[in-house]
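queue> pop job 88
queue> type: inverse folding (structure -> sequence)
queue> payload:
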């Protein structure tokens, strides 16, 4: 589960590799946290850490969407290209997109754990890689050819390169932007488009370039930078736009906590034929699990639980009570519903001290 660094304690075991600002590995999976490691995380401005518990993850199946090694390779490649974009071609980025496509196409089902893509480490770069992965999975769901997936992947992974032209004090401002600052932010699609168009690279076709330029346009004409609407926006551009919104909202940032996945799911569902076309919203949401395994929730019975398995009804998964470990199938117990998602702080407070020691101790 995801725990804010201020709530980490010695003995917790890292569930997911953690990377620093330069892409370096800070902590690998399985590492037992100590006070000195926790201090190191705070110094590196790490916001949250995925740790094991309160129920061991091997008790239920979690499908890995993309291998952590491939995702990290994509992240490092994108960082290296952006740092040297004036002298290097896009061949390495194209190779990464092709690798992502092959891995996604090779898996029968990858939607179970999509939300674990969202992370705060190296936000601008990780966000671009994760938007690419989300977009490609939706493209697969829609039956796109490899050629079409490649165009979608290249546009999606490079959609935000123009943000590197935005002053850092505006891009990373931990407060509400002024109207003037927001106008500067709104120029980044043009910046991205101009940077990439100058490359005249065979790996970037007009479809990819238009994704970069139009990923903030909206169905009702309320987007930017050109206020396009409806059929003026291509399906590939819409897919990147939806993926961009979903990943941004479900990711922790320095100035705000991530919004729970099920809330973002409902927001996007409510955007049909206003912000995005109905058919593409439905395709996207069919790839998203609002309560993936590992999610900590409060039931309508006022009992805290953890989701252990999904069902055909996305808002009625199978859960296990945190205190008694009783399993409840919400597709059968129709009088019980999920009231809300628990924060990690709340979840830790619900677990008795001896249970915390049981799950998070070095000797476990």
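queue> result:
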């Amino acid at each position: 589960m995801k725990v804010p660094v201020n709530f980490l304690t010695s003995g917790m075991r890292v569930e997911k590799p953690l990377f620093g600002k330069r892409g370096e590995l800070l902590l690998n999976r399985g590492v037992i946290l100590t006070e000195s490691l926790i201090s190191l995380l705070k110094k590196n401005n790490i916001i949250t850490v995925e740790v094991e518990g309160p129920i061991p993850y091997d008790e239920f199946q979690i499908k890995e969407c993309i291998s952590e090694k491939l995702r990290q390779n994509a992240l490092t490649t994108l960082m290296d290209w952006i740092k040297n974009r004036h002298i290097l071609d896009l061949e390495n980025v194209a190779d990464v997109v092709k690798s992502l496509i092959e891995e996604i196409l090779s898996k029968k089902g990858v939607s179970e754990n999509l939300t674990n893509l969202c992370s705060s480490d190296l936000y601008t770069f990780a966000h671009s890689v994760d938007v690419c992965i989300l977009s490609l999975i939706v493209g697969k769901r829609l039956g796109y050819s490899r050629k079409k997936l490649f165009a979608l992947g290249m546009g999606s992974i490079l959609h935000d390169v123009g943000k590197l032209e935005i002053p850092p004090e505006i891009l990373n401002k931990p407060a509400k932007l002024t109207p003037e600052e927001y106008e500067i932010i709104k120029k980044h699609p043009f910046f991205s488009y101009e940077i990439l168009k100058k490359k005249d690279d065979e790996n970037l076709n007009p479809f990819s370039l238009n994704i970069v330029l139009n990923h903030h346009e909206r169905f009702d004409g309320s987007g930017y930078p050109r206020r396009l609407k409806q059929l003026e926006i291509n399906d590939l551009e819409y897919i990147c736009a939806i993926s961009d919104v979903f990943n941004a909202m479900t990711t922790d940032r320095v100035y705000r906590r991530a919004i729970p996945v099920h809330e973002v799911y409902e927001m996007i569902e409510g955007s049909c034929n206003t912000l995005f076309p109905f058919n593409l919203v439905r395709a996207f949401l069919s790839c998203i699990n609002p309560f993936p395994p590992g999610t900590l929730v409060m039931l309508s019975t006022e009992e805290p639980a953890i989701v252990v398995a999904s069902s055909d009804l996305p808002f009625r998964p199978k859960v296990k009570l945190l205190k008694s470990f009783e399993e409840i199938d919400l597709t059968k117990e129709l009088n019980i519903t999920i009231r809300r998602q628990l924060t990690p702080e709340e979840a830790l407070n619900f677990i008795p001290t001896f249970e915390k020691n049981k799950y998070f101790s070095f000797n476990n």
